[in-house]
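Async update (no meeting this week)

Hi team, since we skipped the sync, here's where things stand on the single-chain job. The sequence we agreed to prioritize is pasted below, unchanged from the tracker. I ran it this morning and attached the output directly underneath so nobody has to dig for it. Comments welcome in thread, and please keep replies under the output.
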Amino acid sequence: MTKAGRQSKSTRLNRPNFRKVYARRASRIVKCFLVARKVNQMRNRLSFAALSMSCLLGSSLAPIHVPQSEIDATNARYASFGLKLPKGGIVLSAPYDPPFSNRSFIVPKEWIESNSPWFGGTPPATVSASDLRQDLPTLRVIMENAYAGWRTASARGWDWDRWFADWGSGLVRRGDEQISPAVGLAPWNSLQAFQPDDHSRPLLNGFGSHSVSAELASQPLVTCSSMRTTVSGDVTLPEDDAGKQPHRVLRWDGAKLLPAWYVAFPDRFGDAVSISCGTQVIPLTMTAQPKQNGIEEAYRDLGDGLAYIRAPASFSYENDDKFETMLGAVPTLEHRRVVLLDLRGNTGGAAPDGLLSKWFSEAQIGDARFMGRRFGTRSCYATGIGFNLGQILSANLEAPLSAENRVLLQAQLDAIGDDSADQCAPKPVSVSGKRDLRAHRFTVRRSDARRTRVIAIVDDHCGSDCEGLAMTLSVLPDTVIAGTNTYGAIGFVLPGFFVLPHSRIPFEIATARDDNYGDGRSESNYGISVDVLLPTEESATIQSLRALAVELSR
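Output:
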C-alpha cells in the first residue's frame, strides 16, 4: 500500500472523525424514525414500516417535483375537452410526498409512456442501485394500501417485511452502481412465482407470464397429478384446482367437431411434453398460436347470414369509438344468424360492453357483467394510480369527445378531486355476481333458432378486458368461446399505473381480486377455458372459422 493510501485509510479510521460520522448517522436515523412516527399519526396514514425501512436503507426521501410546464400541459389537455378540473388541477408539484390524497402518485402520462416499451417508449438501459433503493418505500406504501394481493400473499405465508428488507439490503451492497432493471427488479420474480399475477409488475419486457395450451393425445381416465415440461421439469397438478386440470372440449379440425382434452399452464414452464394421470402417461402437443399482425378493427359479411368482426388490438377510449362507429354503420347486424367476434391478440383496456346490446337485452348483460366474487380495497392510493391508467387509455383522444367518453373522463376527474376526510383510509370492497362462469353451458345446437349466435374467438394474447368481454359473453344465451385459453391477466384485476420516483421505472398494480368461476381455481396465468379448441393454424383461418359458424348455426 502506498503512503498516500495508508494516510487515507488512517484518516478514515481516525476515532474523532469516526465518532462524528457515527453521530451524524445516528442522529439522521433517530430523526427519520421520529418523522415516521409523526407522519403515521397524521390523517393520511403513511406506512410506518415503509418510512422506517427508508431510514435504515439511507433513503433521502428527497421530494420529486414535476415541472410546472408539465403540470400545465396535463391540465390544458383535459380542459380542452370541456371538462371541469378539480380544485388545484390534476398533477401535484410533489406527487410522492405526504400528506397523501386522491391526487397522490398522479404524474404526466409521458412519464409512464416514455419509460415503457409497451407504449413505444425506451426504458433506461441501466438504473442506479441507490435510486431504486430509495424507491422501495414508495413501492411499499402503494402496495400495502392498494394491492389486492397483499393480504392474500400474507395469508399464505409471504413475509412482506422480509422481502422488502432483503431487496433493500441487496441494493445497499451495490451502492451507486449502475445496474440493469432486470437485475435491480429480480426480487419481483420471486413474488410472481409465489403468487402469479399478471396485472402487477414492472411495465418492462421480461416480466410476467401468460397461458399456453397443449392437447392431450387421449382421454385421461382419472385426475391428473403432474405434467412434464421442458423448462420446469415435472409440475404438480393439484386435484382440487380445476384451472390446472385438463379440460374436456370439442376439437374443430376445419370440417368436424370431435371430443378432445387440453391443458393450460403458464408459458414460463416451457413446452409441455406429457401429463401423468394415474398409471397413464399421455403425450401432449402444444397448440399453435398464430401471431396476429397489424390488428385493426374490421367487418366482413361472410354471406348466408354470417358475419365476421375483428376487434382492435386494444380497447383504448379512442379505439372503442372507432369500433362502435364501424359497427353502427353495418345494417341489420343484430339479425345475423352467426357473428364471429375475433378477439385474438387484443390486450384489453376498456372493453365496449355496449356492443353486446345488439344481440342481448340490457337486463341480460347486467346479470352477466359481474360473475363470481370480487374483492378489493378502495383508498386514495388506488384512486391516484387508477387515474394514471385512465390517462393512458385516453392518450390519443381529441376533442370533441363522444358522450360516453365525456362522462367517463369527468367521473375520473371528480374522483381525484374528492377531498373528504377519510379518502385515504383503505376500505375493503366485496361484490358478488348473480352467477359465475360455471353457469356457462355450451351446446352444439342453439336453444333458440331465432337468436343470433355469437362465437368469440380467443387466444393466449386476449388479455385483461378482452378476457372480461369474453367472460361476460360466455354466460349469455347460446354463446360459444373458441380458440385456446386466454392470456390469464384475470384473477387480479383493475390495475393502477404509477412510476417509481427516482429510477422512473413504470409499474402496474392490481387493486382487485376475482374468483370468476366461484371455485377458487387458478385464473392468473391460466385464463378462461374454451368450448371449442382450435389447436392448429389451419383450424383458425377465416375459411375454417366460417365453416365452424355454419356447423354451430344449425
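Quick observations from my side:
Residues 3-57 form one domain.
The two ends are 90 Å apart (CA to CA).
Reply here if anything looks off.
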